[in-house]
Design goal:
With 863 residues, the chain is of the alpha+beta class. The strands form six sheets. The protein has a six-stranded antiparallel beta sheet. A five-stranded antiparallel beta sheet has the order 4-3-7-6-5.
Amino acid sequence: MTVSKKGVHPQGLKIVCFIGLIILGLLGNYYRAKLFLGVDFIFGSVAALLAARFYGPLWGGIAGAAIGSYTWVLWSHPYAMIIFTVEAALVGWVRQRHRQSLLLLDGLYWLVVGSLLVALFYGALLQVGVLQVQLILLKQALNGVCNALIASGILGIFSFLGQRFPQKFQSVRWPLRDVLNDILVAFVLLPIMLLFTLDANRMLVDLERSVRTDLQLASAPIIEQIRNWQRQIWETATDFSQLKAESLTEAQLITALEQNVLIDGLWVLDSKLRFLTQATNNPDVSLSLQSLSQLELRESQPNQLQSWRIVAIPKDKTGDEHQLWLVRPLTQGLESTGFLIAHLRFDRFIDALTSPVKIYDQAVGAVLVNENQQVMGSVNPAYEPQDGFNLSQPKTWVRQLGTRSAEFYQVLTNDPARPPMVRARQSTYWFASVLPGDLGWHLWISFPAQPHMDDLQVAYNQRFGIVMLVVYGSMLAAYWVSKALVKPLQILAKITTDLPDRVNDQQDVDWPQSPVQEFDQLSTNGQLMAESLRERFLEIHQANEQLEQRVAERTEDLEATLSQLKQTQTQLVQTEKMSSLGGLVAGVAHEINNPINFIAGNLTHAEEYVQSLLKAMSLFDTFYPDPEPTLREALEELELDFLVEDLPKTFQSMQLGARRVQDIVQSLRTFSRIDRAELQTFDLHEGIDSTLIILQNRLKGRSDRLAIEVIKQYGPLPLVECYGGHLNQVFMNLLVNAIDAIDLRDAGRTLADMRQNPSRIEITTATLNQQLVIVRFRDNGPGMPPEVRDQIFEPFFTTKPTGKGTGLGLSISYQVIVEQHGGALTCQSSPDWGTEFYIELPIRGSSKPQNTIHPGPRSTATV
């Protein structure tokens, strides 16, 4: 089985190799080795074990079932297939977990599981005899061990190919312990199997020779009795053979019957087949014309019947009793004068077939067959007189024994469901002897093979048992010998695997001792290598200590530099951001301020001018109450009354709008106070309000969200010395984060839910003591889990989507409050409560952080 160098089969190659193993397994079962009678070795399990080794126990079991299906074809039962399937799956499963030798695991399988399955299937279900079950068990166990040994040898070939041709084959793991174990078992198993096979065949040959001798001895008395029976009949027939048929009298016939008890009737016929004389001792015996036709006597054939013959015919067409007839031509010179026909006693003929010799205290069966292969007489119930004789019967097959003649046979049943040894035990031996005389008759002697096969099976079982004891003893001895030889190598391999770590950790190493010189030399070399490593590690440790010292010094410098760079970077980002924002806001405020001041200043004059015009119109209406029709129509089209009433309101609205724009511009100017680098007094409320004005557009309601309610709970605060523009940026960051969190929460709420539980931001200020003021920003948004809350002040940490947050807002706010102003910035948040940022600021400017206690969640009333 080839394996790619990369160690991974393409899926198609895997399937092809798996199917190839199944085909090889089927061929191994088809071309089975016939060792001796009833014992065949099949080799399909070799491929099944290899499939379990390479593909795992599940696919090994599938391969075992597919390969073992051929045994169903051989023996017409599925039990062998089940045993072989369980063998491949169970051996593969145990090996996958314990990495033991295939030979050892297969031997354990047959010792524990296989023996139980054989006893169950063959003994309980197939009702096979005890001797046969023992033989099947021992044969299958030895067959399985041989197959496991062959599979291990194939793995060794793969291992050799992987080492010899690494570009084409992947090296298969074959541990030294398995190598030694397999070689030691093979040294014992192969010779003893060869000797056992030769001895078993010798025992079979001796058995067949003994059976043939016994059948020859059993047939000798029968042949002698038949010879005497023929001689007595011949003497009686010869006394009349030279006489004319017309000269024979009834008295002569009666005298002959009295002298020969084997004959109970005589008839004399002339050449024309006419009855001349007769005499009988049995009134039930008669010779009719029908009997003559059965004796094949024809008037036209007298000259062709020059010798005597014995014919067996039924008494009648439906009767079971048979009759034996002697036909003897009566001749004078070369002329036939007639026929002498004698009726022979069938019971005396059957008595002649009974042998006084017995084999294993059992009488043999005898069948007398004439030259036409018809049964003349039989003491075998399978054959009746006048039947055609043929050893080959339905569902049987004939095995010819010996090479010198064709007179010794074994007839076996052809039932594949029975094991071969069982069929051999149920077989029959047949021996044929040619009877003396010119009749061409044969005597067939039969005897059941069961007694001989029982003796043979007992001998086979004894030798099989000895072989299995030797094999399992060799496996046990090989296991302990290989373990004793390999154990020092395993210990040495384990030590050398982590030897550098052991030497580096100054651990003591217990080097193994072995009686094998080469292993002991390896241990000595390992000790020398450990000493060399210890010296090298000592030098490395010294160099590492010096290097670590230098690295530590350099690391401290780099960390200090990096810290300064981070602070500088944050400050630059903050300065640039505030500078850009302040410049933008200041520019916008400046551009808007001039036009709005012009508009606000002119609105007063415009209102005075309009009032003067309205007063003039009132006087005109007083002095000219009835103007000309044309003027009246023009005044009506202008809706002068409405203009007089609405124009003052319009001017008031314009003045309110102008003042609103002026307030916004003032807020922008307040928010953008970044042009001073020194501390200045600052009104925190003014900074917060200016930030809220800038964020007014985000606070107001939309189509999908109600307005966010801002609750101001301002306490009396003194002016604080601080960097006002930087604090405004902190307020902006905190309020923007609160608005973003509320928007995120409200995106999943309905308007009704918003009305019932409105979104709000609470801003609380108070004087904590004579040195500190506090500012709290609390929202009822979704809140933050602890793992997020603990990281919010880290630079570049953000939970907002990409492009919507930089992760610098809270980090810069923390730097502004803590580092620039010496205050404190803390956060309290939970998913069911919301988020609150707590700011502590010194009233008098400070460059050092103040040690303060961070408060927990509190309500507005506790401030």
